[in-house]
Amino acid sequence: MLPNSIFLLSMPGGMEWVIIIVAVLILFGGRKIPEFMRGLGRGIREFNDAKTNVKKEIEEGMNEERPKAEVKP
To answer: What angle (nearest 5°) sits at the alpha carbon of residue 60, between those of residues 55 and 64?
Structure first.
């Protein structure tokens, strides 16, 4: 019983989506939603760009040839 009770939250169903959309329209109005979506899109794009840059830097760092340590006799 315990493992099933942990996952009580699930994806919203059909009527729940309608209620969420109506609530968003009431709270933000029709004019603010496009601005909000644009800002959300910019944020996602910046996150993906940063993720790509970090991945590229890590791959470049792994591919760099390390200088060999000098061995003294």
So the answer is: 155
Q: Is the pTM value of this prediction over 0.85?
A: no
What is the rounded distance in angstroms from the CA atom of residue 14 to the CA atom of residue 67? Answer: 60
Q: Is residue 2 part of a domain?
A: no
28 Cβ neighbours under 8 A, 6+ residues apart: 36
Containing structural domain, residue 37: 30-60
- Mean pLDDT, the chain, rounded, equals 81
Burial code of 17-53, b = ≥16 C-beta within 10 A, e = fewer?
eeeeeeeeeeeeeeeeeeeeeeeeeeeeeeeeeeeee
pLDDT recorded at residue 11: 77
Confidence of residue 61 (pLDDT cuts 50, 70, 90): confident
